[in-house]
Amino acid sequence: MKSYLYLKPLLLWKDPFYWFPIFHIDSDWLKSIFPALVKAGIIGLLVAMAGLSKHRKDSLLITCVLVYFTLLYSMYFVMDRYNEPLMPLIFLGMALGARVVLRW
Hints:
It comes from Effusibacillus dendaii. This is Glycosyltransferase RgtA/B/C/D-like domain-containing protein. It is a single chain. By secondary structure, this protein is mainly α. It has one domain. About 70% of the residues lie in helices and about 0% in strands. α2 crosses α3 and α2 packs across α4.
């Protein structure tokens, strides 16, 4: 049970998928900022859900999609490349959280 609920989600969200350099961006730099991006997105979604805003339903939907796919991928084989399609949702979470904080 620990593997499905803790170890596999941690493995899924630990590192970015980055096989070869794009636009001369170093993989070490990307790996260093990736955890901060994921944490900022999750915190942004939580702030948007907790804040008194009209975006509560939007942030709840994005959070449910992220949790669903994290649990789905955790039931099977997990690789860091599986988080790549979910990164736009993380960025939306960052934006929603920033909007709620700036309007507060």
